[in-house]
TrEMBL record:
Pfam families: Dak2. Residues 6-207 form the DhaL domain. It comes from the Bacteria. GO terms for molecular function: kinase activity. PROSITE patterns: DHAL. Keywords: Kinase, Transferase. This is Dihydroxyacetone kinase subunit DhaL. SUPFAM superfamilies: DhaL-like (SSF101473). The keyword Kinase applies.
Amino acid sequence: MSLGINWVTTWVAKTVDVVSTNRLRLVDLDREIGDGDHGENLDRGFTAVATKFASLPDDSTPGAALKLVATTLISTVGGASGPLLGTAYLKGAQAVGDATELDSDAVVAFLTAARDGVVLRGKAEVGDKTMIDAWTPAVDAATAAAADGKSPVEVLRAAADAAAQGAVATEPLVAHKGRASYLGDRAIGHRDPGAESSSLILAAAADAADEVK
């Protein structure tokens, strides 16, 4: 099986729901080690994406739709998360190109390019207590699943599960990037909000794939 435009539109709808549901929790996580606006910013951004998707042409490719997510997030989301996530979607869209259907290898290509986009924009590495601590385990798990011949749905589920574990694993870390880095050891014991939101977004991707398969 493969994933087409229906997957992307369903993913966006599920992301809107999961971000809205977890908005206050993300605000609380960010208030502990950051500006406290992460949940509000993402909620506003993905609501804007949903509005744009309401008029998405029926013949849109997954890449074109993902590019629309990127440009909307970059233009509407404040703070660091807008440019970072926007770049992730943009680089991911470029990786899948004009394909109308995405197989497991294409899903891995999307995830890898998205992660690399965040690294390029934010200059963060695994262990810095950022969203990279969710994205890199996701890419590694997706790559392994695809190599084992797993379907796109299974590849995305592996990625989502690894991202969730990666987000939890940020709690004992000292932050080396962003506002949290100013806190030093005081950031220990707090989960990174960007890693947590990334894990929620990737879980929405897996849920969407499972729904449209």
